Amino acid sequence: MDIVSQVLEKAAQDERLRTTEVQKHLEVEIDEGSLLAVDYNSFDTEKIKTNREDYFKQLTRDNVQLLINRIWELPTKRVDEAVVATLPKPRFVLPRTHRLPKPKPLTKWQQFAKEKGIKSNRKRKSKVTWDEQLQKWIPNYGYKRTQAESEKNWLVEVSDHADPTLDHLSLKTTAKQEKRSKNELQRLRNLAKAKNVKVPRVGIPSSDYYQDTRQIATAVTVARSSTASVGKFQNRLPKEKDAKNIKEMVPGSKKNKQPMFKPGEEVKRNLGFVDKILSKRPAISIVSNPSESQNRQTDDESPRPKKRSKISKKGGKKPKGGKGKRDMHTKVGGRKRRQKN
């Protein structure tokens, strides 16, 4: 408690800091293990109406100060120039945001080992072992394990009754791959068992897995179309039909296939395309005789005669204006005005 008293005395000397003493009508319930403070005092409604934010900030500061005062009363120690308090076990049970995780189901081997009382010593095993044949340490798994096996098993012992024409080294490699595939299949079966999925021993899933006939039809259609020819050369059962609405699942299928044309419909369709193209291009004419097209080109290139005005047909010239001068002795013009009686 000497460290705590020293810190509090040093903080009390600073005038800028507030006091650590907080007065409450009802005692605040504090759980040091959960760092939780529960205040049962009623709110001041007048302060909430006048200044809501400042009131709640002051209330929060007082409750946190009480929690820190209680933490300083716990046994403390100094770790790397820092004062650390040892918290007790929590007394308040906090609610969980998520449900408790379900226990992971045991695999087939784990269930068998549990029933028989077999204990695994995997943690006690070393990562490397000493090999007398290679006279060096080789890994039991992982990095450089394959290289060590190829150096060690470069020669395979064969019995007298074995076929000498066979490649026993490749047969051993194939057997290892089959064993690996078997282990992978067993792992997938364990996952299916954990998720309550019924998986058949052989063949396609049974009717217990496919509750609807449409699911079976979908599986058959996808399996038949999963070839290089997209099921073109695969035989069909009598009255077998393709499943519907699985075009995105079938490889190579087109969603918008054009229907087959009947005799004569293809010609009409092509002529419709030609008419559509020609209607968009003006001044295009189709001529069967090339000489006619040449004559039309020469006619188009010749200059066109100019239109004659109506005045030239009458033979007279256009009269000119008098330019604003008028001789009253020689020429009498103008419109006679009617006199009013």
Compile the SSE list and pairings:
Layout (H helix, E strand, L loop, with lengths): L1 H12 L15 E3 L4 E3 L6 H6 L1 H21 L3 E3 L4 E3 L22 H9 L11 E4 L4 E4 L5 H8 L15 H27 L18 H12 L40 H16 L9 H12 L8 H5 L27
Kindly describe this structure.
The protein has 341 residues and is mainly alpha-helical. Among the domains are: 84 residues, no CATH class; 31 residues; 48 residues, no CATH class. The chain is built from 10 helices and 6 strands. The termini are far apart. The mean pLDDT is 76. One of its GO terms (biological process) is ribosome biogenesis. Keywords: Nucleus, Ribosome biogenesis. Involved in ribosomal large subunit assembly.
